[in-house]
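Dataset card, provenance and construction

Sequences and ligand SMILES were collected as paired inputs. For each pair, a complete structure of the chain with the small molecule in place was predicted and serialized as structure tokens. The example below shows a pair involving pyridoxal-5'-phosphate. Curators did not alter the output after generation; any descriptive sentences attached to a record were derived from the structure itself.
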Amino acid sequence: MDIADNISRIKKELPSGVKLVAVSKFHPVSCIQEAYDSGQKCFGESRVQEFCEKYEILPKDIEWHFIGHLQTNKVKKIIGKTALIESVDSERLLELIDEESAKAGLVTNVLMQVHVAQEETKFGFYPDELIGYFESRGFEKLKATHICGVMGMATNTDDMQRVTEDFKKIEETFRLIRDNESYSLRGFDVLSMGMSGDWRQAVECGSNNVRIGSSIFGLRNYQN
Ligand SMILES: *Cc1c(COP(=O)(O)O)cnc(C)c1O
């Protein structure tokens, strides 16, 4: 499995304007360095401890996306280290990110996670809930957080019709918020959908940010 080859193969197929996040969770620093040396600068991590360890060691111009469930008591540890937190799944978490960012004197970019998949274990706002959050104008209170768009996952299934339906629901939620002029949102333009098994469908449904792990780095060993 050659990491640089995998990246260049995917990049060739990705339409221009779609960002590739190389999801490096559970993979060692040496693999990330290999991808970095081939020109990949954006990586995704999902666990705070692992991310912070890698952050310390790896080049400082890496653009880190945090993509996992973020516990509120760990927010402080990652503020200032991420280019984008893709997985804001509650108002409480968003408020905390805002508080800690203000304290640190910086602005944190985030995506709101939408939940449409059938699995019980997935986090996020239901589409109606997220639209309700914007209708209630909760975002106007934010001092140090920039909401850049929406992230979502499709149901984990081989039924590609179901996957496409899920992506369409996420895209619709994104569009309803983005196109509501009364919100005056600036730079609400990231639609993050698609992983190794379904990124082609996601891109067809309008994704402009794909998060690909195993097709680049191989299978993850969850034992380590
Ligand atoms: C692990 C993960 C991915 C990457 O999954 P692959 O199937 O390995 O491409 C993408 N998004 C999120 C949120 C993840 O947790």
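Derived descriptions for this record:
The first strand starts at residue 19 and ends at 23.
Residues 23, 25, 46, 67-68, 195-197, 211-215 surround pyridoxal-5'-phosphate (CB under 6 Å).
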